[in-house]
Amino acid sequence: MPSELYRHTYAQRAIHQKNPAAKLLLETIERKQSNLAVSVDVTSTRDFLAIIDVVGPFTHIDIIDDFTPSLITDLQALSVKHDFLIFEDRKFADIGNTVALQYSSGVHKIASWSHLTDAHPVPGPSVVTGLSSVGLPLGRGLLLLAEMSTKGSLASGLYTEGAVQMARAHRDFVVGFIAQRRMDGVGAGPEEMTVEEDFIVLTPGVGLDVQGDGMGQQYRTPRQVVLESGCDVIIVGRGIYGKDPSLVENIVAQAKRYKAEGWAAYLSRLEL
Ligand code: BMP
């Protein structure tokens, strides 16, 4: 039988997580009563920090036009001030040696400040061992992209099963998935099916007002994602900051709306 743990509270599930970033994520969600991650895909430092000062982030540090290392200092200060985790959506996808260097070094030095990051499983287990050699000693956690939100995504079927098997073999560092549904038990052999696993699932492609963006993105509601598909965190970008990242009042209002929807869906899930 697949695990039923996702119907426990975030706090109960935090107790059993061995990876410190996974534990911290679930504890923070419970403490803040928010399963919302805001995807801050803006290109200027000013807009980036202004948005993060009002909402918790999921970042793409490589799209900032005016990046300087002080941005990271500011981001870390906001993470402490507002009690949120940072997830750099880097989508690593190279051989182990290269991803280890990309994660630790270069201009961005992602491992030194991002609690969580993610990788495509396409290179095989070496992408995990490479990232783990850098991230595990720092208490970081990794999510594998088991599925994508985009129309025509190739991440399905056996590929998705392979991603989950890869995660199962590296449970100390892989804390869960970027996916569209609960992944416990996926691709598991008969013996593994009896194991109570509890992967955390973060889900992009969440929107309340539109169903797509004309560039392949597909949106579902927080209720569909959290209640019907068993995912844990809703990742919302343009649904919150819209077309104009400088309209802070609007961002706050939309963030509250998505936060309320995500939490209501979670509470309904507990009643199932
Ligand atoms: P938006 O809500 O504006 O569509 O943004 C979604 C965010 O989630 C983007 O930052 C995108 O890179 C990311 N994302 C996604 O949309 N689908 C995936 O399958 C994986 C992602 O990381």
Automatic annotation (TrEMBL):
* SMART domains, per database record: OMPdecase
One GO term (biological process)? 'de novo' UMP biosynthetic process
> Mind listing the GO molecular function terms for this protein?
orotate phosphoribosyltransferase activity; orotidine-5'-phosphate decarboxylase activity
The Orotidine 5'-phosphate decarboxylase domain, residue ranges: 35-251
Q: Would I find Lyase among this entry's keywords?
A: yes
Kindly state which keywords UniProt assigns to this record, in alphabetical order: Decarboxylase, Lyase, Pyrimidine biosynthesis
Protein's recorded name:
Orotidine 5'-phosphate decarboxylase
Q: Which organism is it from?
A: Mycena sanguinolenta
